[in-house]
UniProtKB/TrEMBL annotation:
One of its GO terms (biological process) is protoporphyrinogen IX biosynthetic process. The active site is at 200 (schiff-base intermediate with substrate), 254 (schiff-base intermediate with substrate). This is Delta-aminolevulinic acid dehydratase. Belongs to the ALAD family. Keywords: Heme biosynthesis, Lyase, Magnesium, Metal-binding, Porphyrin biosynthesis. It comes from the Bacteria. Mg(2+) binds at residue 239.
């Protein structure tokens, strides 16, 4: 590429005026880029989550209001996470298969009230197990891949039957995308999508989420035996290749900002829709920085979300979705 030299070349020239900055923008962020995660309470009260300031668990009676707010702000899709009552959690997580569990009731409640918003539902056993792991555990505490995969298939089917639009397995078992895709096809759910949490890292940024779904106190050990090592990037490409080959419609990288290099690598290598999850610890870092007077919330939210777009993401799951969508729509 040939280009002029200074002073003919002045890269500041187009930055002088707002209209010009807008015209030269290489990426845009819109409310349609945002997926809003919502936590469902099992009781009747709104339950603020102390480690996730500004985020609450919503009872079923209030969940449709949130869906309407999201739709009215231009958010295309919600991600749902249930806080299963402790007495319904068990070693085998069988409540995940109950077609009347909190997740399935939330799906039906939202679909009845707001049929035109998309619903993405998490597939993994952690909100349902008494040990807090995403799968079935053997006597040594090892999470068993193949038996877990079979349960996840059943979990995906009850969610699809309740009306989920996008099944999002966040469990990191090998082979579950193919098994779930096969079951969805066999069950007549040919248009239900799969967004695979393909490159999900064993991260220190999930703490507040574990409070939100009440697994922090239950979790025995850690998830390093199935989630990825933060040292690895090549392996993320193998994870993505595997999930695409098994029928994923889109893939996710998680956490978000510390793994933007992975978003970029995946996008360049595969040219498929890539989503990023700006996770609970990332949200909390921003909120605590704001509370400490170290940052401007609106600017920081919009800048971090734009960074995902620049890296190549098709969209972002973020607890700031409603706030950001309203800023963008204003
Ligand atoms: N299936 C577990 C799951 N699904 C989404 C998140 C984290 C999301 C967040 O931190 O916002 C986790 C946490 C974990 O793996 O322990
Ligand atoms: Mg995998």
């Amino acid at each position: 590429m040939t280009q002029a030299a200074f002073p003919a070349l002045r890269l500041r020239r187009p930055r002088r005026h707002g209209w010009s900055r807008a015209m030269f923008a290489e990426n845009v962020l819109t409310p349609a880029d945002l997926i809003w995660p919502l936590f469902i309470a099992h009781g009747d009260e709104v339950e603020p989550i102390a480690s996730l300031p500004g985020v609450s668990r919503w009872p079923l009676a209030r969940i449709a209001e949130r869906a309407k707010e999201a739709r009215d702000a231009g958010i295309p899709c919600l991600a749902l996470f249930p806080n299963t009552p402790r007495d319904k959690r068990s070693d085998d997580g069988r409540e995940a298969l109950n077609p009347d569990n909190l997740m399935c009731r939330a799906i039906r409640t939202i679909k009845d009230a707001v049929p035109d918003i998309g619903l993405l539902t998490d597939v993994a056993l952690d909100p349902y197990t008494s040990h807090g792991h995403d799968g079935l555990v053997d006597a040594e505490g090892h999470v068993l891949n193949d038996p877990t995969k079979d349960v996840l298939v059943g979990q995906a089917l009850v969610q699809a039957e309740a009306g989920s639009d996008i099944i999002a397995p966040s469990d990191m078992m090998d082979g579950r995308i193919g098994a779930i895709r096969g079951a969805l096809e066999g069950g007549g759910h040919v248009d239900v999508q799969i967004m695979a949490y393909a490159a999900k890292y064993a991260s220190a940024f999930y703490g507040p989420f574990r409070d939100a779904v009440d697994t922090r106190g239950l979790l025995k050990g850690d998830k390093k035996g199935y989630q990825m090592n933060p040292a690895n990037a090549e392996e993320a490409l193998r994870e993505v290749a595997m999930d695409l080959a098994e029928g994923a419609d889109s893939v996710m990288v998680k956490p978000g900002l510390p793994y933007l290099d992975i978003v970029r690598l995946v996008k360049q290598r595969f040219e498929v829709p890539v989503f990023a999850y700006q996770v609970s610890g990332e949200y909390a870092m921003i909120e605590h920085a704001v509370a400490a007077g170290a940052a401007d919330r609106d600017a920081m939210v919009l800048e971090t979300l734009m960074a995902f777009k620049r890296a190549g993401a098709s969209g972002v799951l973020t607890y700031h979705a409603l706030h950001a969508a309203r800023l963008l729509g204003a």
